[in-house]
Amino acid sequence: MRQTGFPRADVENDFLRARRRQVLSRLAHRLRREPDDVNLILPFDDVVAALGRRGERFLGLHTLSLDSIVGTVDSSRDFDRRFRPTSSRVRERWERLALAQRRGESVPPIDVYRIGGLHFVRDGHHRVSIAIATGQQTIEAYVTEVLTTVPARGIRHRGDLLVRSYELLFRARVPLTAQAYAKLTVRDPWGYAELGEAVEAWGFRCMQNAGTFLDRAEVARRWYAEEYTPVVRMVREAQLIGDGTDAEAYLRVSRERYRLMRTHEWSDEVIRRLRDDGHGH
Question: Which SUPFAM superfamilies match (predicted)?
Fold first, then answer.
């Protein structure tokens, strides 16, 4: 925190410095041709919608790293991802609170929601902005944890929510254990839709062969045990995994299997032809 001996001038300089950093950051993102949403604050409601809400619990007062505060419950866009002011609209209140802090007045804890390791401000946006602008590393906060269906992993900006929303739909279509879901990851959002269709198609053929109806849970359980797990094992032994995840490899070889052999069955001959065709390219 810079001190000139004139608190009012100090807070005015702090605000102008924070605004300048926000403008420069936005310019840098544009020059690097990064996605427009990289520097936007994460909206709590959109994150919860993408992950699926299971419940919440109050955790009490905690000391948080300011780096973990990435979003807001507020729908306004007064601050960017690093809580730098995006306009001068918040200047009066920002400087008033900052001046009170410089004069030694007590600052109440902020109020946040926690999703995974991310925090979203319910109350205290200006306090977070001031803390970051003045070089603080932590802040006191009352924390309410939100439990979600899909884990809050890999969320850095708004574009990542699309992947998580497709994963949420996949979990509704294919009910499995948490351990199984952890092994069924794809990077392209459409991959979850394709994987869901693959499970349902496999279940339809399974019911036709057995002449009986199977619910979603049973189809998912049998597909994972009888189709996905042994196929991934064969694909690994044949060195066909590639650079992606196991689920991506499964989808890729499944598409190639049908293109080459017009069959949904797996055999040593299928694996041999897939391996030979891959080496041929």
Answer: ParB/Sulfiredoxin (SSF110849)
